[in-house]
Design goal:
Layout (H helix, E strand, L loop, with lengths): L1 H22 L23 E5 L8 E5 L7 E2 L5 E2 L7 H18 L4 E5 L6 H4 L4 H25 L6 E6 L1 H12 L2 H4 L2 E7 L5 H6 L14 E5 L1 E2 L28 E3 L3 E6 L4 E5 L22 H4 L1 H19 L2
Parallel strand pairs: 2-5, 2-6, 6-7, 7-8, 9-12
Antiparallel strand pairs: 1-5, 3-4, 10-11, 11-12
Helix pairs in contact: 4-5
Length: 323
């Protein structure tokens, strides 16, 4: 009997190691890689939450944070391509964004944002879709587990908002492929902020329905902002769908933001072109971001518009429920 138990434990250990290895990026044998310990989403320490819906008229928002870490090394010299959810400094940087987002999304809504082992900037800067998708498997494993726990925590009768910025936008697209039809039926909207939706993404799921206006529900809002279409970053913003997040139109009619900034949708390239806006508050990053694109602005420049639009789509979803 003891031998059987020992063999079973060895089998389970082998399976766990094989699973972890399958999620690791591939490298030369001479490079030691470190995979941070996984999060436990049954613990409140793995979440930033803000329960702002005191009247039961809002939505439950699942928000996915963007990229905050660069490649780093452990004390033994091992290389890591992921944020560590147990590292206080990594948590502090993720929490900075999650709390800022909660400040404008959580009023009248219940807000949930998980810490997760997001891929470092070096993964994105490979500019290789296969590499990005391979390295993202670990990050998406965390997000799927977090989302499943989020579904267990929330009242399933309430409207659902899924939102994410940059790498979080990537995760939103993948999560729309992951959720089942029942969960999708509660979706008021999904917000892909500063990331793309591709024709292949559209082929892989029926859950990505491009938004056409300000109050349609079960739809995906996607936009990327540039100063000129020549600055489109193919890794991030080469999208096949888009909507103007100021006037919520899918044609080229311009809108004015903060009195002076003009934004219009370039329908040929599916990006938002902003004029009269220096975006000087967003410094260029290693020649990869904020170099004519205005990637870092996406949640913040349009925060008022996003806050009101979440309310509008939530009201519309609830109205349809009672028809």
């Amino acid at each position: 009997m003891k031998l059987k138990i020992a063999n079973l434990l060895l089998l389970l250990l082998s399976a766990s190691i094989t699973f972890a290895q399958a999620l690791e990026p591939s490298h030369s044998d001479s490079i030691r890689l470190h995979i941070p310990a996984p999060p436990d989403y049954t613990s409140g320490d793995m979440w930033i939450t803000a329960m702002g819906d005191t009247t039961d008229t809002g939505a439950d928002i699942f928000y996915i944070v963007s990229t905050w870490e660069e490649d780093w090394h452990t004390t033994d010299g091992s290389l890591c391509h992921y944020a560590d959810v147990w590292n206080p400094l990594h948590r502090q940087r993720m929490a900075k964004e999650m709390n800022r987002i909660a400040a404008f999304m959580s009023p009248s809504n219940n807000f949930y944002a998980p810490y997760y082992r997001h891929m470092t900037m070096e993964g994105w800067m490979t500019c290789n879709e296969d590499t990005i998708n391979s390295w993202e498997r670990l990050s998406m494993h965390d997000i799927q587990l977090a989302f499943d726990e989020f579904l267990r925590m929330r009242d399933p009768r309430r409207p659902l908002i899924i939102a994410g910025f940059s790498q979080g936008g990537y995760a939103v697209v993948q999560l729309l492929k992951y959720i089942d039809d029942d969960t999708f039926s509660h979706l008021a909207a999904a917000y892909v902020l500063g990331y793309k939706v591709t024709p292949r993404d559209m082929e892989q799921t029926s859950h990505i329905i491009p938004a056409q206006g300000a109050d349609d529900t079960g739809v995906t809002i996607c936009y990327n902002t540039v100063k000129d279409v020549k600055y489109i970053n193919p890794v991030i913003s080469n999208s096949c769908i888009a909507i103007n997040p100021v006037n919520w139109r899918t044609d080229e009619r311009p809108a004015t933001l903060h009195d002076t900034i003009q934004v219009h949708l370039d329908t040929a390239h599916h990006v938002i072109v902003a004029t009269n806006y220096s975006a000087s508050e967003y410094r260029p990053y290693k020649g990869f971001l904020n170099v004519g694109d205005i990637h870092s602005c996406e949640p913040w420049l349009y925060s008022d518009c996003l806050r009101e639009n979440i309310r509008e789509r939530t009201r519309a979803w609830r109205s349809l429920l009672h028809e």
